[in-house]
């Protein structure tokens, strides 16, 4: 029970929880490089739910964004919560799809930069709604989203999720980093197959060749998760 716990008040409206707190998320303790401190806005009880990561390319197609919204929304309707990075493209489409169900704790977002980054807090989209209805996490105190710190969100998402669904990914997409972490952590990997000449889907096709389960409808995911 996370109610009534003391957490450090940091930044503007954010809280933090440190690794030595007994209520630090147990799923993150399994990482060899666990965050020493997590900053958050929202309800930490979200991390006790069954989380499915729905992720993909920032340079997404309209079809990919539609798929992300559909699968995220349907997963929530079947009792799961969706976790993704707070990023443009597929990830934002997935989070928006989860939020569209109007169910509490449906969307969990992980940020690479500080939760006080003005690009997030003054942005036009879903930051405020996720903070009010779900959870936003970060391990960063830096506004700048440096490439050498970008793996942080990938490994946090992989540790927290039960499985990952990859909607679109190019051959060198950062999405594949999350898939690699999931593989090392023994998480189920799902990917949507695409036309082989479509550059934005080559990562998905490669993952399927390597053993990820190909997804053509929601039952492909639900049946696998129930076994």
Question: What can you see in these coordinates?
Answer:
With 227 residues, the chain is of the alpha/beta class. 34% of the residues lie in helices and 19% in strands. The protein has helices at 26-29, 62-77, 90-99, 118-121, 127-133, 151-160, 175-184, 202-209, 218-226, and strands spanning 8-10, 14-18, 37-42, 51-55, 81-85, 107-110, 135-138, 163-166, 188-191, 213-214. It is globular.
Please trace the helix and strand order, writing H or E for each element: EEHEEHEHEHHEHEHEHEH
Q: Indicate the low-confidence ranges by residue numbers.
A: 1-6, 145-150
Instruction: Tell me the Rg in angstroms.
Output: 16 Å
Strand order of the largest sheet: 1-2-3-7-6-5-4-8-9-10
**Overall 3D form:** globular
Instruction: State the end-to-end CA separation.
Output: 28 Å
Residues in helix, %: 25-40%
Strand content: 15-25%
* Strand element count: 10
Mean pLDDT, to the nearest integer, reads 87
